[in-house]
Amino acid sequence: MQYRPLGNTGITVSEIGVGCGGIGEGCLTADVVQPALEYAFEQGVTFFDTAEGYGCGESERALGRLFSGRRDQVVIASKFGGVQLSPGSWSKDFSAARLEEALDASLRRLETDYIDVYQLHTPKEAALSDCALFEKLDRAVEQGKIRCYGLSNDDGAQAGRFLDRTRGRTIQLTFNLFSQKDRQEFVIGQAPKRRIGLICKVPLSGGLLSGRFSDRYPPPDDERRARWGEESYSERLTLVERVRPVLEAPGRSMAQGALAWLLSHESVSTVIPGVSSLEKMSDNLAAAGMRLTPDDMTALDAIPELADIHLGW
Ligand SMILES: NC(=O)c1ccc[n+]([C@@H]2O[C@H](COP(=O)([O-])OP(=O)(O)OC[C@H]3O[C@@H](n4cnc5c(N)ncnc54)[C@H](OP(=O)(O)O)[C@@H]3O)[C@@H](O)[C@H]2O)c1
User: Fold this and answer.
1) pLDDT number for residue 285
2) Ligand 1 atom 10: residue of nearest CA
3) pLDDT for 164 beyond 90
4) Exposed/middle/buried for residue 183 (C-beta within 10 Å: 0-12, 13-18, 19+)
5) pLDDT per position as a tens digit, 91-107
6) Closest ligand 1 atom to the C-alpha of 212?
7) 276 CB under 6 A from ligand 1?
8) Nearest residue by C-alpha to atom 4 in ligand 1
9) What's the CA angle centered on 154, arms 255 and 156, to 5 degrees?
10) 3-class secondary structure for the chain?
11) Is pTM beyond 0.85 here?
């Protein structure tokens, strides 16, 4: 594994982390993913991303159980404001009044007395102007309950405003070969200048960039395929074939090529592919240390369909 600074937070993270978004949802129980998480830790992964809402708290609980007694060896990022009270039923609450209670509940589920990176989970714009909320976040840093805080969203312009107005130091952004709208201005422009910690979520475009999706897998009732719609799904499969010849190479799977493309951007601190199985985890972790050649980068930049592409989550 290779490690990078999380911007100027003073925290170091493995360049490949683990997205724990699906844990506790559908058939992805904590027991099912436990071997993959344990394997990741053994292979040197130190960065694990979760949220209060994932699996109605089950994702945080799974990490709490796993790292109990060795908490100091991992960096845990969690999120607040996105509340899932029952499966599939989400609501948003970024009120300053709720922050302390939400943070304490996350700390209990994570079986820890601090969270390394505490992120606003896709907030509405109004939350960014709520002085009371950021006073409480600053106070939580002073108290040692969180080491730093940040924003998880899908918009580089909003990320810039968040950094202008707050002491937040990390941005978790949807950034992958099929989601590039913030690449020039934010990932290449602002992120290195501002020395922020940049966390790339959805790095495989939900699995598409593994090159393993087809008409038959995942099935039409898969949550992602249903969300994208069949017409868009078939266009996405066509795009996959445009990038496959560059990403896939002898000794390099397509998923590894897609992660290496992200890691070829110096401002990226860590990429967090979603955990689903030990086999896929192992494939992804082998991308540590891989970079694309300048020729590969140029070849991908020259694909006209990728110019300013931004396929939604
Ligand atoms: N609003 C937010 O803050 C937000 C939103 C979205 C995501 N996130 C974060 O980002 C993380 C990752 O997002 P994501 O899981 O949606 O997208 P992703 O990482 O792009 O895709 C993950 C999916 O791709 C498939 N996959 C992974 N590695 C593979 C491999 N080597 N070969 C073949 N297939 C592979 C798996 O699906 P199958 O096994 O089902 O094929 C896996 O569930 C989340 O866990 C979460 O931490 C945050």
Assistant:
1) 98
2) 201
3) yes
4) buried
5) 999 999 999 999 999 99
6) 33
7) yes
8) 201
9) 105
10) CCEEECCCCCCEEECECEECCCCCECCECHHHHHHHHHHHHHCCCCEEECCCCHHHHHHHHHHHHHHCCCHHHCEEEEEECEEEEECCEEEECCCHHHHHHHHHHHHHHCCCCCEEEEEEECCCHHHHHCHHHHHHHHHHHHCCCEEEEEEEECCHHHHHHHHHHCCCCEEEEECECCECCCHHHHHHHHHHHHCCEEEEECCCHHHHHHCCCCCCCCCCCCHHHHHHCHHHHHHHHHHHHHHHHHHCECCECHHHHHHHHHHCCCCEEEECCECCCHHHHHHHHCCCCCCCCHHHHHHHHCCHHHCCCECCC
11) yes
| Each residue's pLDDT tens digit, 56-105 | 999 999 999 999 999 999 999 999 999 988 888 899 999 999 999 999 99
CB of 241 closer than 8 Å to CB of 177? no
**Position with higher pLDDT, 313 vs 265:** 265
Q: How far apart are CA 12 and CA 14, in angstroms?
A: 7
pLDDT at 307 over 90: no
Q: For the chain, how big is the Rg over CA atoms in Å?
A: 19
Q: Which amino acid is at 20?
A: C
d(CA 149, CA 120): 8
Asked whether 49 lines ligand 1 (CB < 6 A), one says yes
110-134 mean pLDDT = 96
Query: Which ligand 1 atom is at minimum distance from the Cα of 122?
Result: 1
Q: Which of 152, 200, 202, 227 to mutate to test the pocket of ligand 1 (most atoms within 8 A of CB)?
A: 202
